[in-house]
């Protein structure tokens, strides 16, 4: 069994549920029209919103089938970083509790995606240096 299987499945579930619900509750269009267009991305807000959500769905599938993992992770990390910059940073750190809509969840997803990309750590081949 692949050492990243649990993390890949978990991230795939998160990406799918976050994306698919927006398809059915008009959330993607609302995000594009009511947020992205309003902060300067008009007239491309809806296109960007759909691109983001479709990238999440594609990344989830790639994570599940364990193919093109680095591509899926890098694209998703870039989306998450932009989410931090555009949406979550101004709300602070906490998603709930000490605040609302903060960046801690994106930060954790970025760390998990990095762990999936580098299951042996960043310094591959230097395991002998670790204690």
TrEMBL record:
Designated name of the protein: DoxX family protein
Segments passing through the bilayer: 43-64, 71-90, 105-123
Topological type in the membrane: Multi-pass membrane protein
GO CC annotations on file: plasma membrane
Predominant location category: membrane
InterPro entries: DoxX, DoxX-like_oxidoreductase
Record flagged with keyword Membrane: yes
Pfam families given in the database record: DoxX
Organism name: Flavobacterium shii
Similarity remark: Belongs to the DoxX family.
Subcellular location: Cell membrane
